[in-house]
User: Fold DUF397 domain-containing protein from Streptomyces daqingensis.
Amino acid sequence: MTTRADPNGVAWRKSSYSNGDGGDCVEVAHGVSGHVPVRDSKHSDGSSPVLVFPTNGWGAFLTAVKDGRL
Assistant:
């Protein structure tokens, strides 16, 4: 897993499951109270749209993925 900050001061984290060339993955931002911004890691230069999820919704999504329900 790698973490880096963008020019807006948001720290983005890329999954350690991402392939070596940086594609096929998402990045998740830290430090945004009550929300989880998500973007495409292939466009981490800021050209990718950012989807913003409520923290509890993102947590429920991750739990469902880990449990094999999605």
Notes: The first strand starts at residue 2 and ends at 5.
